[in-house]
Amino acid sequence: MGMDERRGALRALRVLMxxxxxVEVPVYLxxxxxxxxxxGQQLPRGDVARWAxxxxxxxxxxxxxxxxxxxWWGAVVAATGARSPLRERWIPASLVFVAVSxxxxxxxxxxxxxxxxxxxxxxxxxLGMTGLFFIPAAASRQLPDVVRRRSRRTxxxxxxxxxDPQ
Length: 166
Hints:
Helix content is 73%, strand content 0%. It has helices at residues 3-40, 52-78, 90-108, 115-133, 135-139, 143-155. Helix 1 runs antiparallel to helix 2 and helix 1 packs across helix 3 (90-108).
């Protein structure tokens, strides 16, 4: 693969990532506000907590997913070979909190919850959280370097060391 072909493939990867993010994230956030509102309306009138799901869940999803993506991407760029930062307890705990809250609101927001509502909620949640998680990678200037380094490593025969990334 020539240099221009590689550059074109990397540009296409970045564009694809941003297209996926541009579609998934807004759909997820609008969906969170809607199902959060509907779920909150299940609480008694006058209860201030009725407004917590639509007001707090979308920013929490953005904050936790992007923060987890930022920490993960920093480790990928550093390529120290150290333990994955995704094993830090706060990262999976925050992602599980967002996922459970999101799916719960999606299921509670309908009059007749069903398996298909749960699956739809889980799908929208997974796609939206994935889009949010990959924002730091898509926005990074190091993306081409990391892709090249990883492709060299996988091109090396198993058991052999890949070329030095420096």
